[in-house]
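S.,

Sequence below, as promised.
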Amino acid sequence: MSNFVEIDGSYLEGGGQALRNAISLSVILNRPVRVVKIRANRPKPGLSHQHLHGVHLLRAISQADVNGDALLSTELEFTPRRIEGGMYKVDTRTAASITLIYQMVMPVLLFANGSSRVDVTGGTNVAFSPQVEYMQQVLLPSLKRFAANTAMELKVLHHGFYPRGNGRCQLNVEPLQQPLTAAQFMDFGQFREVKGAAYYAGRLPKFIAYDLQHSAEREIHRLWPDHQCNIQVFKHTPDRARDNGAGIILTALTSTGCVLGAGSVGEKNIDGHMIGSNASCELAGYIKNEVCVDAHLQDQLIIFMALAKGCSRMRTCALSKHTRTAIYVAEQMTGVKFNIEYGDFGQTFVSCEGLGHFNNV
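The prediction came back faster than expected:
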């Protein structure tokens, strides 16, 4: 059918990013989409169980007609209808990332015809995806710049780690009452402080979390001895996490309200010193280069920039393949154009005159 917008799933990153963003924008704009060569650059190309959970959730939200929604399918056609608010539940039965599922539905539900709650069971803190605390502490505050009245709340009911998952979260979203407004992420201001948490759960020894804490604090204090760095150590009690898990999440706050995040999740043979040091070095790089958007937030803002009314701008670091893929999909689906310029000290400036899209439901 000629009315399908075709998205090349092998573009650049060649993973799930193109699929997630294409389906989300398809639902928001009510534009049928065909995604081909899905996850072509992965060892096992095609749809995984995790991607199917996201596709089926958006199918339910938009009463869509879907073809190709099968395990390992490399082509998918998605024809949405109306965006229905309501109560939705997903149980991945694995450690599949809860936050990647929420990435797909969060922008969509802002344009629903009523309030929504999405209850997902899976992994809250797993590799190759944002930790749930990052979404709470970095993404959600940043999205308020697009619409101060946007009501999104993310609750963690239970933490889940690889390989069994068992985590559970609830995302509550109130629909927009007016179009998203252009957001500016350009003024770094002055670096104020670093906050963070080093956590452990299950049968893991507490020294792992203290190693995470000490290594991270040492690096921040070495570079900024006069700035506050407060990293709390805590254990997830059995009623909040059944299985073994450990990790760290750090945020840097500035005088202009920028929130920069970095972190890591421990897997086998956890080296707390190395993980803590790597996370703090990453965060320190953002602070030293005075970027307003970290490498993990870039791609998550692209959809909102494309949909907002007016010109949104971000001052960030080198663009990741995820971000470039998100830009490619947004331009194909919406017709907007992103402008990319390069500054000193590795800074990258991204701007976009958005659609000003609004569903009058």
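The two ends are 28 Å apart (CA to CA).

Coffee later?
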